[in-house]
Specification:
Radius of gyration: 25 Å
Number of strands: 10
Distance between the termini: 80 Å
Low-confidence stretches: 1-33
Number of helices: 3
Structural class: alpha+beta
Number of domains: 1
Strand order of the largest sheet: 1-2-3-4
Order of helices and strands: HHEEEEHEEEEEE
Helix content: 10-25%
Strand content: 25-35%
Length: about 200
């Protein structure tokens, strides 16, 4: 009887010791194990005007101020118009659509990457007769993204950049530049890739 009681007490003591040891171990955040997001094509020195402009504007509180190494420029005319983005982390991204010819209606957005992948791209401006950009994303490495349906209002082809958000999680960010019809009629634009279904582009 004493042997059984002794064995029972030893088992209880061992269990208590293991529980205490487990409770003292740090809890690891899976997100903390992911490496920082490194852009394959960070912004060149000529894009410093974009960084400076964004720093003067109101941005969503989740958006850190971009720098040349942390920002990618998808399209720009070199002084007035641009679309650029900078990852916040492996889940979220901030992007800016810049048009400050005569005024500064630049807008900065914060978005989960997954929302960009699944929703219809939103235009930066819907004013009739003005130029606008739309920003979107695809899972994986995607090349040859094309906009079709209304070529008269497409200002530039799709610009895109594939980014590894960490541990091989590839996402292709894309933007295209188009003009809203001055008549106010709706646009019929489709965004297509060589593989996979097309999606509405406006």
């Amino acid at each position: 009887m004493r042997r059984r009681f002794g064995a029972f007490c030893s088992a209880v003591a061992l269990t208590a010791a293991l529980t205490a040891a487990t409770a003292c171990e740090p809890v690891l955040d899976p997100g903390a194990l992911r490496p920082p997001v490194l852009l394959p094509e960070p912004a060149p020195p000529s894009a410093q005007w974009i960084v400076d402009l964004v720093a003067t504007l109101n941005a969503p509180p989740q958006c850190p101020e971009p720098t040349l190494p942390t920002m990618a420029v998808l399209d720009t005319d070199g002084g007035y118009r641009a679309v650029a983005f900078w990852p916040v982390d492996n889940l979220d991204v901030c992007y800016a659509v810049i048009n400050h010819r005569g005024e500064t209606p630049t807008t900065i957005w914060f978005s989960p990457v997954e929302d960009l992948v699944t929703r219809t791209p939103m235009p930066a401006d819907t004013t009739a007769g003005v130029d606008s950009y739309a920003f979107t994303a695809y899972r994986g490495r995607v090349d040859d993204i094309e906009v079709s349906g209304d070529p008269d209002h497409l200002v530039s082809p799709v610009r895109h950049l594939t980014v590894d958000l960490g541990l091989g999680d590839l996402v292709t960010f894309a933007a295209y530049h188009y003009r809203i019809p001055s008549t106010g009629k709706p646009l019929s634009l489709t965004l297509c890739t060589p593989t996979g279904p097309c999606r509405d582009a406006h």
